[in-house]
Amino acid sequence: MKKPVRVTITGAAGQISYSLIFRIASGSMLGPDQPVILQLLEITPALPALNGVVMELNDCAFPLVAGVIATDKLEEAFDKTDYALLVGARPRGPGMERKDLLTANGGIFGPQGKALSDYASRDVKVLVVGNPANTNALIAASAAKSLDPKQFTAMVRLDHNRALSQLASKTGTHSNDIEKMIIWGNHSSTQYPDITNTLVNGKAAKGLVDQNWIETDFIPTVQQRGAAIIKARGASSAASAASAAVDHMRDWALGTNGKWVSMGIPSDGSYGIKPGIVYGYPVTVKDGKYEIVQGLEVDAFSRGKMDATEQELREERAAIEELLK
Ligand code: NDP
C-alpha cells in the first residue's frame, strides 16, 4: 500500500460533498491502492451535520481511509494537503446581484487561497467547484502568493460529460466512443461546447449531425442542463457534479494517456484568450501536469462563442478586481 495522501473537501456537509466524499473514500479518484486522509471543512453552524457525515463515513469501514478530520479551521483543513476540492460557496440569495455574489464568494475563496499558500503541500492541486467557479478559482490563485496559479483549476468537466452524453444519445453511440470534446470558457450558460474536432468511433462528429442541431439543440441543452435538472428533481445536480469532480482530479493526478479533457485553467494567450482569467480549455495531462491542446483551427462561429464567454469572465473579473491585489 502507498503512503496516504491528504485530500481537503470544503462545504463537506453539502449535497455535492455527500456524494463526493464517499467516492473519494472508495478509491474512485486516486485509485484502489492509494490511502487517503480526508480533511473536511465546514462553516461552524454546519459542523453538527458534518459530524453525521463523518459517522456514516466511519460506518462504511472503507479500507483506504487512513484518517478523517472534520473542522471549521482553515489551517487544519489545508494542513499539508495534496488535493483540495473547494466545493462550499455562497449561494445566490433572493435579490442578490451578480457583483454581490462574486464579492461574497471572494470573502470565502481569498482566505482559502491564502491558507493553501500557507499550509498546503507545495505540489497541491486545487479544483474549484463552488460557483462562480472560474472566478472563485482566480481569486484563490491570486491570494495564494507562494503557489503557482497553474495549481488552481475550475470545474468544467460536468459540462464536458454532459456534452458527451448528449452527442452519444444523438448518434446512438456510447460516450466511450467519443473523443476530442471541448468545453471552452466559463462554467455558466455562456460556455461553448464545441464538437468541431470531435470524433465518434473515429469519424468526424460534424459529418454525423447537422449544424441546426448543434446550434438549436446540442449547445443550449448542455448550457441549460443544470436548470433542467433542478426542474425535474426539485434540487440541483449533486451526484453528477461530484462524479465530474472525481473525473477532473483523477485525470489531473493520474494522467489522460493522450485523451483530451476540458479543464478551467489560467488563460495564457492560447487561442487569443489573453491572460488574467480562468477559462475552459482542452487539455491533456501527463506526469501531473496539464497542457493545452494547441494548433486547432477556430472558425468564425467558434470564435464568436469563445469571445462571448471570455467577455463574461472579463466582466466577472472587473467586478472583483480589488480582491486580486
Ligand atoms: P451544493 O453542495 O449543492 O453545491 C456547492 C457548490 O457547488 C455551489 O456553489 C454550487 O453552485 C456549486 N456547483 C458547481 N457545479 C454544480 C452543479 N453542476 N450542480 C450543482 N451545484 C454545482 O450546495 P449545498 O448548499 O448543499 O452545500 C454547500 C455547503 O457549503 C453547505 O454545507 C455550506 O455550509 C458550505 N459552505 C462551506 C464553506 C466553507 O467550507 N468554508 C463556505 C461556504 C459554504 P450553485 O450555487 O450555482 O448551485
TrEMBL record:
Belongs to the LDH/MDH superfamily. MDH type 2 family. It is an enzyme of class 1 (oxidoreductase). It comes from Stenotrophobium rhamnosiphilum. NAD(+) binds at residues 11-17, 105, 112, 129-131. Catalyzes the reversible oxidation of malate to oxaloacetate. PANTHER family: MALATE DEHYDROGENASE. The keyword Oxidoreductase applies. SUPFAM superfamilies: LDH C-terminal domain-like, NAD(P)-binding Rossmann-fold domains. Residues 5-148 form the Lactate/malate dehydrogenase N-terminal domain. Gene3D superfamilies: Lactate dehydrogenase/glycoside hydrolase, family 4, C-terminal (3.90.110.10), NAD(P)-binding Rossmann-like Domain (3.40.50.720). Its EC number is 1.1.1.37. The gene is mdh. It catalyses: (S)-malate + NAD(+) = oxaloacetate + NADH + H(+). Substrate binds at residues 92, 98, 131, 162. Keywords: NAD, Oxidoreductase, Tricarboxylic acid cycle. GO terms for biological process: malate metabolic process; tricarboxylic acid cycle. It comes from the Bacteria. This is Malate dehydrogenase. HAMAP family: Malate_dehydrog_2. Residues 157-321 form the Lactate/malate dehydrogenase C-terminal domain.
